[in-house]
Amino acid sequence: MPFRLRVDGLGASRGEDPIFRDISLILDAGGALLVTGRNGTGKSTFLRTLAGLHPADSGTIVIEDGGDATAPPRESLHYLGHRNAMKRDLTVEENLLFWSRLTKTAGDTVGRIDATDGTVEALESVGLGGLGHLPFGYLSAGQQRRAALARLLVAHRPVWLMDEPTAALDTASERMVEALIAGHRSIGGIVIAATHQALDLPGAQTLTMAGFAVTA
Amino acid sequence: MRDRSLAIRSFTDLANPTRFIALAGRLLPWLAGLTALLFAIGLTLCFTTAADYQQGETVRIMYIHVPAAWLSMMGYSVMAASALGSLVWRHPLADVAAKCAAPIGAGFTALALVTGSLWGKPMWGTWWVWDARLTSVFILFLMYLGLIALNRAMDDAGRAAKVSAVLILVGFVNIPIIKFSVDWWNTLHQPASVLRLGGSAIDPEFLRPLLVMALAFTCLFFTLHLAAMRTEIWRRRIAAMRRQAARSAASA
Amino acid sequence: MMALYFRDLKLATRAGGGALTGILFFMAVVAVVPFGLGPDLKLLARVGPAMLWIGALLASLLGLERLFQAEREDGSLDVMLMQDTPLVFTVFIKCLAHWTASGLPLVLVTPLLGLFLNMEPRAIGATMLTLLAGTPAITLIGAMGAAVAVALPRGGLLVSILVLPLVVPVLIFGVSAAYAAVEDPAPFLPPFLILTAITLFFAVIGPTAAAVALRAASE
Predict the structure, then answer these.
(1) Segment A131-188, tens digit of pLDDT
(2) Which of B109, B110, B100, B32 is nearest to B74 (CA)?
(3) Is B145 left (phi over 0), alpha (psi -120 to 50) or beta?
(4) Chain A residues lying within 8 Å of B246, measured CB to CB
(5) Distance between CA atoms of A80 and A77, rounded to whole angstroms?
(6) Class of residue B195 by CB neighbours under 10 A (exposed 0-12, middle 13-18, buried 19+)
(7) Do A139 and B245 touch (CB under 8 A)?
(8) Using CA atoms, how far apart are residues C152 and C162, in angstroms rounded to an integer?
(9) Are residues B152 and C115, on separate chains, in Cβ contact within 8 Å?
(10) What is the C-alpha to C-alpha distance for residues C179 and C188, in angstroms, rounded to an integer?
(11) Minimal Cβ distance to C218: which of A53, A77, A94
(12) What is the b/e burial string over B6-15, where b = at least 16 CB atoms within 10 angstroms of the residue's CB?
């Protein structure tokens, strides 16, 4: 059985309010899922639940990695939230090096391990080549977002969870994000992206979050 | 004629940081040389003059202590003048001058406190007493450190300069308190003996090395201050260039 | 994990970091004491160890609120919560870095402040030693408070209120050990060993509780 992500009957709520219920899906290696829906319908909560940052009321999230072995999902995931997880006072390179050292798993065969840990290449591919020496706080909002995307490249994780990956990005950079996602899928990665902007992900499944009506 | 265009023609030309850097570059070697020369003379005098009949050899500590204490107050006065400059005339160079004087002033204050303690242990029998003079100098030291911390905490240099300028000027009340503390309160610290009405109370034998050392310390202060200001201007230019680099990469 | 330790050290010492502020606060607190008590050198020497301990305690609490709040604000906390390294360990490393950057310097300036308070060399040495053993406990206990208050917009004061009652034992044994070293009849070792035991105890309890609180706060 090849590598795949299976979600069965997932439901979550915030406080007393149910956010979503009974979401089931299967994503094979190289697959993608586009989560859409209006604001407040629970796109972010869905991603955070998948990431293990929000408790699930019901359901299971399993990553099947050949045979019966099911790895705990956490160490196979990259999560890119609304916030960039970067320190303004450190340089872009210091930020990336830190995350690379912290998130790189033992069996990482894609990410490089050397003095720069692939940060230079990662910055090149998000169009920030040569800016690694600048403090993160000097960058514009779009550049900061792109630097945050580079974090996903410095350590390989098969599943990417991206919450509004194109926030603050211009059209050219949106194309770049699409190219990054395509690249990740081509090496067998899985991408789940929540967005309300048009992202062109060929062959992606779509999940439209409708949200619950508040029931008294 | 690049050189001519950088010549300082009037005082206002100093406002131009580029001219200032050119001037500082030319002035610094001379100032540093003068400082070294004065220290050579001063230190020789310090160790060749007679020891005091009462204080013995420890009197030589005074040749360091007194100038350092003067400079600690002068450093703050330079800062206050610069603060006035940055608040009233909004002079960018005044911002730089105020910021750069703080660590140097803190250094001289620390030197004054340490040498004072070293002298106090054999003379007074204690490293430290909380009398008016010592306390007010210690507060000056804390104020220096607080201003350094404030400058470090804010990343916008212009705003940091305005805020700290206000604080510097308010803190200036401490300077006359330090100066006159020995007259206003009855303290363990001896009253002023060099600069006072009716002539100095110090024997010329001791006065000569003291004055040379004071001059040497003053030159040292300005050498360090000028060098620090030049470094700070360069640092700001590098920061501006880095921001520029980030921006130009965005448009590319 | 060394990467996290060095990153936090770098952040603490770089512009805007809190390391210098803590030391300044410590000096200011101790400098204020003689104004309150009067400049009686004998009295100052007697209250010296206690004043240094209280000053160090307040200064250690000062920077603690930002320990997890800064990480939460920029989203780093989410990524840390997702790693396979146990969160307890991550919290412990962060505490260690925080102590190195803001607790250790307090211990190092103690002798200087001891001179200002006219303390005997022996008393200064004892206070330094007890602070070295005791300040990690303050950081570790404070981490619990910081984790609990992480989601609150103005958690700073609350952290201090939550943490102060828990730090009382540290203060009691720290100060009594420092005094025992100077005053003859009381033995130094028992209170000092209890102080060390408290630190080791909270090295386990503190990060565990903080990790639980952080998980709960992330929901």
Answers:
(1) 888 888 888 888 888 888 888 888 888 888 888 888 888 888 888 888 888 888 888 8
(2) B109
(3) alpha
(4) 131, 134, 138-140, 143
(5) 10
(6) exposed
(7) no
(8) 13
(9) no
(10) 8
(11) A53
(12) beeeeeeeee
- Per-residue model confidence as pLDDT tens for chain C (219 residues): 788 888 888 888 776 666 778 888 888 888 888 888 877 778 888 888 888 999 999 888 887 888 888 888 888 888 888 887 788 888 999 999 999 988 898 999 998 888 888 888 888 888 899 999 999 999 999 998 888 888 777 767 788 888 888 888 899 888 888 888 887 777 888 888 999 999 999 999 999 999 988 888 776
Which two tokens mark B240?
Answer: 């501006």
Are the Cβ atoms of C34 and B135 closer than 8 angstroms? yes
Q: Which phi and psi angles does C199 have, rounded to 5°?
A: -60, -45
Single out the residue of C67, C26, C52, C61 nearest to residue C128, CA to CA: C52
CB atoms within 10 A of CB A3: 19
> DSSP letter string over C139-204?
HHHHHHHHHHTTT-TT-HHHHHHHHHHHHHHHHHHHHHHHHHHHSSSS-SHHHHHHHHHHHHHHHH
Q: H or E element: which one contains A4?
A: strand A3-14
- For residue A77, the SS3 value is strand
Chain C residue nearest residue B148, CA to CA: C20
| Interchain contact B235–A (C-beta under 8 A) | no
Element containing residue A207 per DSSP (H, E) = strand A205-208
Give the pair of three-digit tokens for residue C4. Answer: 């996290």
CB contact under 8 A, A72 and C82: no
Question: Is there a contact between B242 and A137 if contact means CB atoms under 8 Å apart?
Answer: no
CB-based contacts of C5: which residues, under 8 Å, 6+ apart? C93, C96, C97, C100
Distance of alpha carbon A122 from its chain centroid, rounded?
15
| Cβ within 8 Å of residue C128, ≥6 positions away | C107, C110, C111, C114
Under 8 Å CB pairs connecting chains B and C tally to 41
For residue A141, count other CB atoms closer than 10 A to its CB: 12
Report the neighbours of B using a cutoff of 3 or more CB pairs below 8 angstroms. Answer: A, C
Of residues A138, A142, A143, nearest to B242 (C-beta): A138
Which B positions 141-180 lie with beta carbon below 8 A of chain A?
155
Structure tokens at A111: 């990410």
3-state SS, residue A58: strand
Beta A70-71 vs A58-65: how paired, if at all? antiparallel
Instruction: Give every strand in the sheet of A70-71, ordered side by side.
Output: A17-28, A3-14, A58-65, A70-71
Question: How big is the A-C interface in CB pairs under 8 Å?
Answer: 72
CB contact under 8 A, A82 and C80: no
Residues β-bridged to residue A65: A3
Read off the pTM: 0.82
B125 contacts chain C (CB < 8 A): no
